[in-house]
Predict the structure of Acetoin utilization protein AcuC.
Amino acid sequence: MSQGIETPTGKSAFVFSEDFTRYKFAEDHPFNPKRLVMTLELIKQLGLLEEQHLFQPAPATDEDLLRVHDSRYLDAVKRASLPTADPDHFAAWGLGTEDTPIFPGMHDASSLICGGTKLAAELVMSGQYQHALNMAGGLHHAHRAQASGFCVYNDIAVAIAHVREKYDARVVYIDTDAHHGDGVQWLFYEDPNVLTISFHETGKYLYPGTGELTERGEGRGYGYSLNVPLEAFTEDDSWMQAVRDVLVPVLNAFQPDLILHQNGCDAHRFDPLTHLAATTRIYRDMPKLTHQLAHELCEGRWVGVGGGGYDIWRVVPRAWTMLWAEILDAELPEKVPTDWLERWQVQAPFELPTTFLDPVDLFAPIPRRTEITEKNEITVRRALNGTPFLF
């Protein structure tokens, strides 16, 4: 495995450490690092990962973290990481809650994920690689001084702050997790050089309850936060229409130097924590669009991270394998390898899907499809109308 960034120029980098799996709250917590192991095994089974792609990250330093986090919060996370820490002492920082329990080694595990996304961004911005993936990243809910929604440190913000400081780059952050990308949005809310775009299930019924059309940015950053809150039970076609109708004109107008895309895959109908109705087709089509835009607008500079995804058996491994295949520009077979299915079926509580794309008739059409589609079209129009640099 390669160390640091001292390698020849290449196309696609895969940032990974086995220690990523130490970011684990509890055995029964929905944020389960087993999904990383399952996905990595599927990628390897398909022969899509070679030594030249692999990069071992170092933990983010305190200097890296302090670009986006409060020093008192870092101190609290370090103290909460001790084996003797009492969760009741850290509630003011959003730690020790049901969503984000404390665990021994939490600071080290969180810093390593931040270091991974920073390394992915550095590999791309330095010109050594066109694309890079850290599927352990995507902790988009962490705030400057508060943990939230399973997220302790915000690896995405750490990476963006790094490339802003070192390269003065204009960054587009795309968030297609089912939950609003609130932490990243608020951390760059006044920065006109960081455009945050979040497609998510409306906050009417889903955590964190933000991501309204009216959240546009502040000061010089006004217009550079763009939210597309989609209706519950949104299906593939309406989701992808919204994504295309927004990303193509907005990114063309903004002209980014780097695209960073958070690829949470909890909009799938199987996901137990959300109320959307997508299939794995959107996890093939969204990376394809991002890939195309990266080459059209910023010489291919594209960093992908993971994010949410709580059906670790039937959704996450297929979705993030399709993401890596797109980053690699590789064709996937129609079917999931038999050896991988046999390896994991004995542990899975559900029958594992045998194809990467869900069959078109897997789910019955939702009621109110026409009404939901029309509401989403109105939301997209209003989101674009409130984006001043388009006009």
About this structure: Strands lie at 2-3, 10-15, 54-56, 129-134, 171-175, 194-201, 225-230, 258-262, 302-305. The mean pLDDT is 96.
